[in-house]
C-alpha cells in the first residue's frame, strides 16, 4: 500500500497521524479514516493493534492496557464483541487454564465486570453436564470426573520446607447447587507426580471444608449457605516443612479477616510423600489450582436418576496412598440417566501467592487488575 500524501484525502494508503491529545495511529486509511490493519497508542500507555473499520476497532485485535492487562479477540464498532482471551498483569499473569484435563468450551473460563470483589474484573468458571477433558496421561472423562481449573505457576515460597501464603476471594451464586454425594473442589494444591492434593477446599454436605489429603487432617471452615450470593475472602498460611514439632501448627486460616480455629498439628507435606516423589522427580513443584473440579459424579447421577443404565461399578485405587474410593461407573457421560448433572458457576477474584501475609492480604494490597 502506498504512503499517504502530505495533503488531500487519505484513501487506500498507509500513514501516521497524531492528535492533539497524544493519540497516535499508524496504519491503513480509507476516506480519511483508519481502515484496515493498524496500531493506535494513547497518552495513557494503552495500545490497540489490529483491524479497523470507518475509524473504529472492528475485527480481530489486541488491546493492551498500561498495567499489562490484555484483551485478545473480536471487536465491533469500537467495542469488544464475541469470543476473546484475556490475560493479566500481577499474579494472574502467571496463571493458565489446565489445558487437556479441563474442558475446552468457550463458556468455561471468562472474565466478568459485574460480579467483582475488587478492581475492574473477576474470573468466572462454568461447568455443565458432560464437560470433561483428557490429556496424554489422564482422562477425566474415563475417571468419573469433570473440571475447569486454572493453575498458578509455582512461586519461590511454594516448595518443600518452604512457607507460603495464599489469598483469594470466592463468590458462589445464590442458585449454586451442591452435588452431594459427589465432590466439588474449589481450590487445591498439588505436588508434581502425586495424585492426591496436599490440601483442598471441598464443598459438600452443606460445608466448605479444608482437607489435607496427604496427611489425613481436615476442618470445617464455613457453611455453604453463609457464602451464597456474597464474596468470601480466604487467607491461608501453609508450612511445607516435613519435620514433626511439638506444639507447632502447620497452617493458619482466616475467613473474611477472622481466624478459624483449625489446628493442623501434623506436617501437610509428609516425609513419605517427599521420599516417594523424589524417586521420580529431580525437581519438585507445588502449585495452587482454582476453579471447579467435580469427582465421582456418577454418585449424584445414580441418586437422582430416572432411568437405570447398566453400569459395572468403579473402584478408583490410588496407588500412592492406598485409598480406594468407590462410585457407580468410571464413564458416566456414556450413559442416559434420565437426568443431567447441574451446571455450576463460581467466581474468583484477587488470587495471590506470596511468602508473607503482607504480600497477599486483600486489605493490604491494590487490586490485581
Structure description:
The chain has a seven-stranded antiparallel β-sheet, with no helix packed on it. It has a seven-stranded antiparallel β-sheet with strand order 8-11-20-13-14-15-16, with no helix packed on it. Strands 9-10-23-12-17-18-19 form a seven-stranded antiparallel β-sheet. It is 5% helix and 41% strand. Strand 4 (47-53) and strand 5 form a beta hairpin. It starts with 12 loop residues before the first strand and ends in a 9-residue tail after the last helix. The longest helix has 8 residues, at 271-278. The chain has helices spanning 271-278, 297-304, 357-360, and strands spanning 13-18, 24-30, 33-41, 47-53, 56-64, 70-76, 79-87, 95-97, 109-112, 122-127, 145-152, 163-171, 183-191, 199-204, 207-212, 217-223, 231-239, 251-255, 258-259, 286-295, 314-315, 326-327, 344-354. It has three helices and 23 strands. The chain has two domains: 13-87, Single Sheet (Histone H3 K4-specific methyltransferase SET7/9 N-terminal domain); 90-364, Jelly Rolls (Sandwich), CATH 2.60.120. It is mainly beta and 369 residues long. The mean pLDDT is 89.
Amino acid at each position: 500500500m502506498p504512503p499517504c500524501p502530505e495533503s488531500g484525502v487519505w484513501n487506500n494508503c498507509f500513514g501516521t497521524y497524531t492528535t492533539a491529545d497524544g493519540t497516535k495511529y499508524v496504519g491503513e486509511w480509507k476516506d480519511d479514516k483508519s481502515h484496515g490493519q493498524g496500531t493506535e497508542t494513547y497518552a495513557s500507555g494503552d495500545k490497540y493493534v489490529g483491524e479497523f473499520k470507518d475509524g473504529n476497532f472492528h475485527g480481530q485485535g489486541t488491546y493492551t492496557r498500561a498495567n499489562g492487562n490484555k484483551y485478545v479477540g473480536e471487536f465491533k464498532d469500537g467495542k469488544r464483541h464475541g469470543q476473546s482471551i484475556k490475560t493479566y498483569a500481577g499474579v494472574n499473569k502467571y496463571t493458565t487454564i489446565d489445558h487437556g484435563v479441563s474442558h475446552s468450551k468457550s463458556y468455561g473460563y471468562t472474565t466478568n465486570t459485574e460480579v467483582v470483589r475488587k478492581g475492574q474484573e473477576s474470573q468466572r468458571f462454568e461447568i455443565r453436564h458432560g464437560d470433561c477433558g483428557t490429556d496424554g496421561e489422564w482422562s477425566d472423562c474415563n475417571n468419573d470426573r469433570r473440571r475447569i481449573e486454572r493453575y498458578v505457576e509455582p512461586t519461590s515460597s511454594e516448595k518443600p520446607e518452604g512457607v507460603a501464603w495464599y489469598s483469594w476471594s470466592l463468590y458462589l451464586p445464590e442458585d449454586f447447587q451442591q452435588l452431594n454425594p459427589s465432590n466439588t473442589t474449589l481450590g487445591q494444591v498439588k505436588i508434581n507426580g502425586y495424585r492426591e492434593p496436599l490440601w483442598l477446599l471441598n464443598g459438600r454436605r452443606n460445608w466448605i471444608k479444608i482437607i489435607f489429603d496427604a496427611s489425613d487432617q481436615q476442618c470445617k471452615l464455613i457453611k455453604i449457605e453463609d457464602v451464597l450470593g456474597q464474596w468470601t475472602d480466604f487467607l491461608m498460611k501453609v508450612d511445607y516443612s516435613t519435620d514433626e514439632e511439638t506444639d507447632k501448627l502447620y497452617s493458619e486460616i482466616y475467613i473474611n479477616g477472622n481466624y478459624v480455629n483449625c489446628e493442623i498439628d501434623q506436617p501437610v507435606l509428609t516425609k513419605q510423600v517427599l521420599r516417594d516423589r523424589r524417586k521420580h522427580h529431580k525437581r519438585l513443584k507445588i502449585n495452587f489450582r482454582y476453579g471447579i473440579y467435580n469427582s465421582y459424579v456418577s454418585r449424584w447421577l445414580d441418586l437422582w436418576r430416572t432411568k437405570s443404565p447398566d453400569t459395572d461399578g468403579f473402584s478408583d485405587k490410588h496407588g500412592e496412598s492406598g485409598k480406594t474410593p468407590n462410585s457407580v461407573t468410571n464413564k458416566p457421560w456414556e450413559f442416559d440417566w434420565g437426568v443431567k448433572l447441574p451446571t455450576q458457576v463460581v467466581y474468583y477474584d484477587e488470587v495471590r501467592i506470596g511468602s508473607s501475609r503482607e504480600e497477599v492480604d486483600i486489605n493490604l494490597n491494590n487490586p490485581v487488575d
